[in-house]
Design a protein that fits this description.
By secondary structure, the chain is α+β, with helices and mostly antiparallel strands. It contains 5 helices and 13 strands.
Length: 174
């Protein structure tokens, strides 16, 4: 039988995605993994549902977080903050969907959506998260806001029920 030439060629070397001369060690693989994340989401609610995505806090989880492009600050429920031993260091007044609210301020070692991670991360703690969960009939542990999302291009694929996060900002059209 005839041997096809393309079957005996050696495989092409892998494409080098790091800059020429950049050091290669295991920690860089983690950095590369963090450039991209894709997670499944579920919808909670009726006609105007919330997008709930799995998040990890301080390398624990997953927890159900709202993907909230309208929130300036990422949030934790007091229940999750207590469970993780996160202690408030201050407070501030803010405005939520239901009006004025006072939130506790804290910091977490890390907040991650799949391989997309920010560490450390300032966070606000508020019972509003639990109230939203009760109104939508589901447990909600937190809210991922602009302060996390601004470092990523965010794509929501409703058909496949996937959220894709790619590190980097959009180029603005002229």
């Amino acid at each position: 039988p005839e041997i096809k030439e393309d079957l005996v060629k050696p495989p092409e070397p892998p494409v080098d995605v790091l800059a020429p001369g950049a050091p290669r060690f295991p920690d860089q693989m983690r950095v590369q993994e963090q450039m991209f994340a894709e997670v499944a989401f579920r919808l909670a609610g009726g006609e105007n549902p919330l997008i709930l995505i799995p998040a990890s806090v301080n390398d624990r989880g997953p927890y159900a977080f709202i993907l909230d492009t309208g929130a300036g600050t990422s949030l934790l429920s007091p229940r999750l903050a207590d469970e993780l031993g996160i202690v408030a260091t201050g407070s501030k007044d803010g405005t939520g969907a239901a009006g004025k609210v006072t939130v506790a301020l804290a910091s977490v070692s890390s907040l991650a959506i799949g391989g997309a991670r920010r560490a450390p991360m300032p966070i606000a703690i508020t019972a509003e998260v639990d109230r939203i969960g009760a109104a939508f009939g589901t447990r909600i542990d937190g809210d991922v806001g602009y302060d996390f999302l601004k470092a990523f291009r965010v794509t929501i694929d409703y058909r496949k029920r996937l959220v894709r996060l790619v590190r980097g900002a959009y180029d603005l059209a002229a």
